[in-house]
Structures are given as C-alpha cells and as structure tokens.
Amino acid sequence: MPTKEDILEQVVEEYLVHKGYLVQHNIKFRPRESHPDFIRKKDSNHSDIDVIGYHPRLRGKQKVMAVSCKSWQSGFKPDYIIQNIEKDRIWKRFRELTTPKWSEAFIKAIKDATGTDNFTYVTAVACLIGEKRAWETHQPFHDALSGNPIKILTFQEMVGEIQDKLTTTLAATEIGRMLQLFKAANMKFTDE
Asked: Could you tell me if 128 and 71 are in contact, meaning their C-beta atoms sit under 8 angstroms apart?
C-alpha cells in the first residue's frame, strides 16, 4: 500500500499527536501575484509546509508547529547549509527562510490554516551533523519568520520520545504500531 507522506513526515505526525497536536500535511503556499517582486516564471509553482501541528490547549508560539522535513540520509549540517544559502547555492530548498515574498506567503499560509501567525518553525531531520545552535539562532531566519522561534528535531529524538510514551494498547497509526514492535523487541532509539 503506497504511503501518502514521507516516512519522516509520518514520524513527525506521530510525535506531534503524542504531544496533543492536531496535524495537517502538505499545506501549499506561494507568493501573492500582487507582490512587487513576484516573477511569474519563478513564483508560480507552490511550495508546501510538510506538517502543521495545532495544539488546542497551548498558548503562544508553542501552539503551532510548522515543520519542514529534511530526510537527507547524508545528514543535515547546519553550518554548511547556512554557508551555501549565503552563497545563493541552495536557497530554493529554504525559500521561506531566505526570500521575503516566500516568507510572507509561508506566514500567511500558517495564519490561514491555524488563525495565528505565532508559531515555532521546526526543521525535522533524519540525522544531524553539527550543532543545532547555528540553525536555531541564525538571525536572518528569525527576521524572515517575524521573530518566531526556530527548532531542529532529529528522527532519533522524536522516536525516542514516542517510544517512551507507548503502551501496549494498539497504536492508531502505522508508525506507532511499528514503534510498538520495536519496543516489544527491546530496541531503543536513545543516546545511551
């Protein structure tokens, strides 16, 4: 049976659901045509927010999680990626963080989906190589996102936290069921 979302997106969903979030996938966005910098040839194709989590009981910037998934098996290297963004090499993969018309469209898509423009921007990664701090504190990214916080979540962190909360009650998702089997087999996803 084919899956609708990337495996990392499914793990993000499971992680957020375990924390009490309601989840939506693949929220489309693109710059408005009336934006002064809109270029039809470059800006007509939509980008998407991989996962949005909305928590009905939380307040502030933790209420909404806007997640961009990077399943790169070679690892996510914050310093290296920032250097390449600054050299205009890979900005398209991070347009919402690098191009004002795309940042505006990203924030509008979140507000349209959740009713608020206060959120936490999460980069979910398969593997982190280096320190989160460079990414999470990069001021141009914060400026692009109107001061909203930025966080990196690794696959290992998410799966470890999900596994810690699993019970023997049948999980509601395929990822949850798979992780229950890992737990039953005494397989752990922690740094120990």
From this structure: no
